[in-house]
Structures are given as C-alpha cells and as structure tokens.
Amino acid sequence: MSLAEKFGDALKAIAPKVVDKVVEALVEREVNKRSAAVVEVFDKLRRLETDRKKLKPDLLQFNDAGEQTTAAWSKDSIDRRKKLDEQIKKHTNAIAKALDDGDYSLVYDLQNKSGGGEADG
Predict the structure, then answer these.
(1) d(Cα 103, Cα 118) in Å, to the nearest integer?
(2) What are residue 72's DSSP bridge partners?
(3) Read out DSSP for 54-110?
(4) Neighbours of 62 (CB within 10 A)
(5) CA dist 110 to 41, 69, 117, Å?
(6) How confident is the model over 23-36, as pLDDT tens digits?
C-alpha cells in the first residue's frame, strides 16, 4: 500500500473524530452564548431590583410620638414603581423560562433591548 493510500485511509478513519470535534465546538459556542445572555439579563434584573428598593414615598406623616402614620406616593412615583415591577417580573420570567424550559427567546429579546448580543437561536 502506498503512502498516499495509507493517508487516504487515515483521513477516512478520522472523519468521525472530526465530526465529534465540530459538534463539540458548536455546542460550546452555544453554551457560551446562552450563558452570556442569561448573565447579562440577570445583571439587569439586579439593577432593576436595586432601583426599585431606592424608591421611597414622596410624603411621610408622623404622629406626636415620632411614629410614621402614613406614606403617600405621587402619581409619577407610582408609575415608576409599577414600571420597575413589570420589568422585574419580565426579566425574572425570561430567566426562568430559559433555565427551566430551555427557551431562550425572551432572554435574547431582553438582551437585545439592553444593547447586548444577537437574537438568533
């Protein structure tokens, strides 16, 4: 058997190894893409939660003993609070759907809205 024939046979024999390596590389790329998307959306969720905690009533009333009796919110403050609550819920649901159901579409949508990566897959 000639050297060229042996080389040809060896190339045929490595085909399954090449396929395995390609599949491994593609899977690793997808794992990295999905992980990066979830981390980015998770970071945004934490920022939203921090912003939500910073919101305070516009007017506090106290009794003679110095105890708070009522807290009043302006319409703008209520609207900001509701918007943050909606965003927090949206981000939480997207992460849960991705990790629990394997559906990353909502995570990718949120990632793109925050200026992140691509929206495929």
Answers:
(1) 15
(2) 59
(3) H---SEEEE-TTS-EEEEE--HHHHHHHHHHHHHHHHHHHHHHIIIII---HHHHHH
(4) 10
(5) 7, 40, 10
(6) 999 999 999 999 99
